[in-house]
Design a protein that fits this description.
Blueprint: E1 2-7, H1 15-29, E2 33-38, H2 66-75, E3 78-84, H3 92-107, E4 116-123, H4 128-140, E5 145-146, E6 154-156, H5 167-193
Parallel strand pairs: 1-2, 1-3, 3-4, 4-5, 4-6
Helix pairs in contact: 1-5
The structure holds flavin mononucleotide.
């Protein structure tokens, strides 16, 4: 079993990546493979609304990181999306990914069905719930199962590494990892039985 993580921060190895790695540590303890892909330094353009992705299984525009990322999304059993909070929402690169992934999935129905999804957000102070909603909406209207945690899956921090001081935020990430592993293992057992 594998969980693919997409980090939408403009900063490599910043707070969002740290939160995602905290979730991954738990998943790995449960024997689940993980891969973190950071969009920092990569190009992710917004949807061009050409609607030519039907039957192709990916976006028609191949000159940026989307196709590489979306292949990994399709292959994974679980998807962890992480974004820093920018202007009380997700980063523009995460928004660009969500737009294109949603249109490709709409035009190729069922391609994400029964995967497990979860989202995390790093914020200095405000807007994390809006960012989480944006990512969770993507999972929920593409037939995916959402893993929850002991609190909203956010943590506070401004400079890289600051979230390490948010004990409650880190505990929430650990809880998310446990629940994601539980859900994946249950689904996998059911799958083996059918
Ligand atoms: C363009 C920009 C906009 C931001 N807007 C917000 C905001 O609306 N609310 C907030 O709490 N933090 C905001 N921040 C702070 C980041 O969310 C915070 O520094 C976060 O820890 C960054 O995560 P990272 O290290 O993964 O990039 C903003 C940062 C940037 C660069």
């Amino acid at each position: 079993m594998k969980v693919f993580g997409l980090c939408g921060s403009a900063r490599k190895d910043g707070n969002t990546a740290l939160l995602m790695r905290t979730v991954f540590d738990v998943l790995e303890k449960h024997g689940i493979e993980t891969e973190l892909y950071q969009l920092a330094g990569k190009q992710m353009n917004p949807c061009r609304a050409c609607f030519t992705c039907g039957g192709k299984g990916t976006c028609s525009f191949r000159q940026d990181a989307f196709d590489e990322v979306f292949r990994k999304v399709r292959e994974a059993d679980g998807i962890l999306l992480g974004s820093p909070v920018y202007l009380a929402n997700v980063s523009s690169s995460m928004q660009a990914f969500l737009e294109r992934a949603a249109v490709v999935a709409d035009m190729n129905p069922g391609m994400l069905r029964h995967k497990v999804g979860a989202a995390v957000a790093a914020a200095r102070r405000g807007g994390a719930l809006c960012a989480l909603d944006a990512m969770n909406h993507f999972f929920l209207n593409h037939e995916m199962f959402l893993a929850g945690a002991s609190y909203w899956t956010l943590a506070f921090g401004q400079l890289p590494g600051d979230v390490k001081a948010d004990a409650e935020g880190l505990a929430t990430m650990t809880s998310l990892g446990e629940n994601m592993a539980f859900l994946l293992q249950k689904l996998h057992i059911e799958e083996e039985m059918t």
